[in-house]
Amino acid sequence: MGNTPEIHPYGDSLSDVFATRNAGVKVRMVLEGHNMADNDTLLKETPDLIMENLEQLPEQLSRWEQQKR
User: Where are the domains of the chain?
Assistant: First the structure.
């Protein structure tokens, strides 16, 4: 049937942190957005990856792709 796509959720709120952690996937946070909690609160949840903004997403995906090799 082909490969199962990999899911890489990114969030900007505490509910995003809890949902991704409960799903058993890495917690990736963007420190901007309309639902964003304050940065100190988000950082206390020790996300696996932190981006200042979505402009950093292509670079992060490229790094991730290189790590898979």
Answer: 14-68
